[in-house]
Every structure is written in C-alpha cells, then in structure tokens.
Amino acid sequence: MRLGWLQIVEGDKLREEAMEIRMRDVPVEAKRGAILDRNGNELAASISVDSAYAFPPQIENKREYADKIAGALGMDKEDVYNKLTQDVGFVWLKRRIDYESAKKLKDLKLSGVELVEESRRFYRQETLAAHLLGFAGDDNQGLIGVESVYDKELKGIPGRIVIEKDAVGRNIPEALHKYIPPVPGNNLVLTIDQNIQFFVERELDKIVEAHHPKLAVIVVMDPKTGEILAMGNRPTFNPGDWRQYPQSVWDHNPSIWYNYEPGSTFKIITAASALEEGAVRPSDTFFDPGYIKVADRSIQCWYDGGHGSQTFEEVVQNSCNPGFVTVGLRLGKDKFYKYINAFGFGQKTGINLPGEESGIQIPQKEATELNIATMSIGQSIAVTPIQLVSAASAVANGGVMLKPLLVKAITSPDGKVSKEFKPEVVRQVISKNTAQTLMGLLTGVVQKGSGKNAFVEGYGAAGKTGTAQVVGPGGYVDGKYVASFMGFAPADDPQIAVLVMVAEPTGPVYYGSMVAAPVFKAVALDTLRYLKVPERPQVEKPVSPFLFEEPRVKVKVPNVVNYPAENALSVLKIAGLAVQTRGQGNMVSNQVPKGGVEVLSGSTVVLELSESSASGEVTVPDFKGLTMKEAGGLLEKLELNLNPAGTGIAVNQLVAPGSKVAKGTTITVEFQENLEQGPP
C-alpha cells in the first residue's frame, strides 16, 4: 500500500523534486547589443570570452584543485580554495578570462570545473564620448550613461545550461544536458557623429593642455532637429577600464550636471525676451558711463569708462552690462520670468541620460529689482550646459525649441529598426521675426564685437561670449571664472549650434573671447567641412581679432613678506598684479611696493628672495585677505599649524606678522564672511 501511494498518488510530485535535486543550472548571459553612431560606426560592442565555474560537491581533493586552478587562472590559491569549500552547488571561479588562461584550464581536464561563454564590453575608441556612453558592470548591467538608460533594450534575455548530476553531484551516464540559448540584446543607434566627436575631443585636449581647467565641456547640436552631434567633457575616463579612475570623474556628466552662472552668454535670452515683448528695438539708443546703479549696488561695465552712446545693436556687440541691465529692468520681473521658464531654465531638458540637473534660479516671488538686473547679465541664475545649448538653439531655429535628442533608433541584432525616435518640439518660445532679428545681432557680435575670435572662415558665425565669476561660500571667488562661447554656423542658415564652456581656467587668460571663442571656431570649421556644407565666399571677415584689455582699477598690494615664493606669486597674481623677483631663495624677505599701498591693477611688485632660516624658527607672515584654505596651505608650508576662528576671509591673527616662532607652533587666525563681495 505504501509503495502504491508513493508511485501513484505522490509519484509526479516526487519525480519533480528528484529532478530539481539532480539538475544543475548554469546561467548563460546574453550578448549585449552594440552602441553605434549615426553612421553605423561601432562605439561599444560585446566580444565573446570564457568564464570559469565549478560544482563544489563534485570535487573531492579541493586543495589540489585549488592549486591547479589558481596556476591556470592567475588567482590566489586561498581565494580559489575558499570558493571550492563553500556549501553551494555552483560557484563562479573567475569571470571573463583571457584566451590563454581559458586554454590552460581546459587542458587540465578537471572534473567539476567547466567553462561557459560570456561577453565582455569593449569600447572601440576608448575615452571617446565616455560620459555619454557610460559603461556596463560584470553582470551585463548598464551602470551609467546610455548603457544604463537603455539597459533593458541592450542586455537581451539570458540563457542557461541544465546539467543532470547524481545526489552528490557526480556525472550520470546518459544524463540530461539541455542548452537554452540566450537572446542577444538590441542595438542602439545614437545621434552623435564619431568624426564630429573626434573634433570635440581634440579641442578639449588642447584646452586642458593650455588652461588646465577644473572642467571643460563642448556640446554640438543640430538646431533644426535637436540632435546631439557630439558631447565631450574633461576630465574624462576609459569606460572599458573605469575602475582605474576616481568616482568623481565618471559619476557625473558635466554637460548635463554642472550648474554655473552663464554670464554674458545668457544675454541671448535677455535680448530674445525683450525683443519679443517690444521692450527694446535694435535702433534704440543707450548711454553707458561705465556703470549702472540698481538699488544700493553699482554694476560695472567691463570696459573701463564705459561705451558712451550706443544703439542696442552695439550694446549686444559690446556685451555692455549697463545696457542689458536697462533692458532687463524695462522688461520687468513677470515677463522676464515668463521667458526664462519658456526657454526651459529651472527645469530638466529631458535628455535621455541619468543625473541631469535642473539649474538654480531665485523663486519669482522672492526676486528683487537687483536680482532682475543681475540675471539680465547672466548672474544670480545657474544653468547647465545642455539647458543653455537647447535654449539658444531655439533662436537659430526660428524661435522653436526642441527637446535634445540623443538616440535615433533601436535596432534588432539583424539590423532591423524596431523603434525610431523623431525630433520633438517643446514649444514656440519667440516668433520667427524676433529670432531672425536676434540672429542678425548675434552675427554682429562675431563680425564687429567681442566674438570676433569665433569667426569661421568661409561660413561666418553668430554667437555670444561669456566670462562669469564662480560662486562660492560668501560670494564670488576671486580669480575663478567660467569662460564660454555659445554660437551658431553658418551665420545665415545655422546647421550647428556649439557651446564651449571652460570652468576655472588657470593662467592670465580667462575670458570667453580668448579661451572659448577660438575653440568654437576650430570645432565649427572642421564640422561644417566634414558635413560638406557649401562655403559662403561673400562672407565678410572681421577687420581685426578681438583683444580684451583688462580694465585697470585700484587695488591694495597684499603683504607677502615672509611668504614662500610660490605662495607669494599666486596671491599677487590673483590680485591682478605682475611680479618681478630679485635674488635667489624660496622665501620673500622684502617687497616693493609695501603691502597695503594702492596701485593700479597690472602694476609690477618687486620681490626680494632669500633662503629660509635653518635655525628652526619661522617668521610669521600677514594672513589678512586669505581664505581659510589659503591660510592653511601657507602655514603647512611654513611647518606651522592653523587654529581657525570663524569662516570667510582672514581679518586678524593673534601672532603679529614679523614675529619669530618655533616650527610646529599653532597660529590662531580670525576669519569673517566677506559681505561686500558681489557681482563685478
């Protein structure tokens, strides 16, 4: 009766349970789909490699096996032994091993140790468009970039190998072996063009070599479709070897993540808004005395003494701050915010990349007249590069704003299109007439104004330069700027929109007209020739290049006596002063003029150098005007310790300048927030 019960009543159930015990499942991942540029060039692909796995219950002499496996795969013997002694039926030994290692392991013919085909992600151009592409992890999953956003489409459906073993994991004669093949992933066709991306990457490398910036971004867009033709950043990384780079480099895409005050490039938006609302006409006249007073603040013009009488057309060409402030105040808060929002600022563009930021703006109900004035010249508002290029492209597209497009199509493994992505209109922001008028004004910027260095031979260009200060705790940071150029080419029928943004370039040149405009010119010229856009032989060339002359203003000479020479040079440079040295050594023993004397910016300070004392004593320098970081760095070089009190800028110190103290002494420095700092 018991036998009958087991065979007839519970037979099916017991057979299934026995089958589950005897069967071993080995997962087989699907081959990840390729990522292609718009012309079908492979940017990322998956290549077949072997992975090694084992069935621990089948292996009796685990120590001997561990030694042999470790030798073949180049692994640590103890690591392998720990894997083989786990109380599991299946364990990975090593994933994605090279051909030679796989051959060595196969030749060992170890029972219970086998190989299975997997795939490894391969990025054909290494660092090309790294942030845009992203990378995939060990388990075939996309982690950042389009690899992450389109992971479901790219990864395919995993397969498996089913192997029948006995109760202790030994092979069974004529056992069941079943292979369920994986389904390969779909391919992704991007809007970017590999060749245009090469032009961008080349220019980014030149920027890094010449200016050593904190960040650099170049985005190329087709203003008529919203398609991203290229997107590059510095610093960058190799997606195929991403673990070798700091997380801070690969974790964020600066093109969509970096918030910055755009400075004068935002004047494109101010002009578009005012022209559309009739708050200004190109022929309207303005007078610039060199500044404009709003509330309790004087907003300076970059040109010392001002531009005098000028039309709005000349205001745009000269990038005149007082002129744009006047226009912004005419427009008014409600109408200005209407266009700021319509152009997409303060909100994400919706580009299909992870980690996009939405920019920063003052809530409309909290904005003051001074805020409107500073926003008119690109301060008191933060944007992302993708926001700015999308918004500005609407001007080149007859006033129609498009959503930035990064993917053209998804195709099956055999190349058939399964889904196609078309340009997507966001809204009509300004009228076609207004857009044409503004394009004429921006063409004048390149022909006659601050954008001359962006002129593209044979095509012309339209655009706007920008040089903005970097915001930090307590106000704007001295000596730190964002140089940019937002432009279009050809001037009469824009085929490309290009944004060049260089954050915190080092060295004496940091203006958008000098740092970013020439980069726009190089990218635009090569791109237009590559796209076979016909040249315009009748285009008039600017008479001379644009040279920015630093306005000379009165500055107080910092007291750098007893500074290490390197720190003294840095402090004087940030103050806008030239330096000449006399003598030899690593310490400043004297300076002419003395600290505290008022001179014009650009004046030369003569430093007398001498060797530091070998007595073990240090002469304490004057820390006034330094940030906490600068003071701490200076004290560290002098082998002294900092005891900070407060935050902001150094205003006092408890050990007087010129005092001699022993190395290792702690110096208390009092800091205070700089409430006077504001827009330049």
Please provide a written account of the structure:
The structure is a single chain. The protein has 680 residues and is α+β, with helices and mostly antiparallel strands. It has three domains: 21-190, Penicillin-binding protein 2a (Domain 2) (Alpha-Beta Complex); 194-530, Beta-lactamase (3-Layer(aba) Sandwich); 554-672, 2-Layer Sandwich (Trypsin Inhibitor V, Chain A), CATH 3.30.10. The protein is 30% helix and 28% strand. It is built from 22 helices and 35 strands. The strands form twelve sheets. Strands 2, 3, 4, 5, 10, 20 and 21 form a seven-stranded mixed β-sheet that branches. Helix 3 crosses helix 4. It is globular and about 110 Å long.
Strand and helix map with partners:
Blueprint: H1 2-9, H2 11-22, E1 23-28, E2 35-36, E3 42-54, H3 62-73, H4 77-84, E4 91-97, H5 99-108, E5 113-123, H6 130-133, E6 135-136, E7 142-144, H7 145-149, H8 151-155, E8 159-164, E9 177-180, E10 187-190, H9 194-211, E11 215-221, E12 228-234, H10 247-250, H11 254-257, H12 267-277, E13 285-288, E14 291-294, E15 297-300, E16 308-311, H13 312-318, H14 321-331, H15 333-342, E17 360-361, H16 369-376, E18 381-382, H17 385-396, E19 400-402, E20 407-411, E21 417-420, E22 425-428, H18 432-448, E23 462-472, E24 475-489, E25 496-503, H19 512-515, H20 517-530, E26 554-556, H21 565-574, E27 578-582, E28 587-592, E29 598-600, E30 604-610, E31 617-619, H22 628-637, E32 641-645, E33 649-653, E34 660-662, E35 666-672
Parallel strand pairs: 2-10, 27-30, 32-35
Antiparallel strand pairs: 1-8, 2-3, 3-4, 3-5, 6-7, 8-9, 10-20, 11-12, 11-25, 13-16, 14-15, 17-18, 19-22, 20-21, 23-24, 24-25, 26-29, 28-30, 31-34, 33-35
Helix pairs in contact: 3-4, 3-5, 9-20, 12-14, 12-15, 12-18, 13-18, 14-16
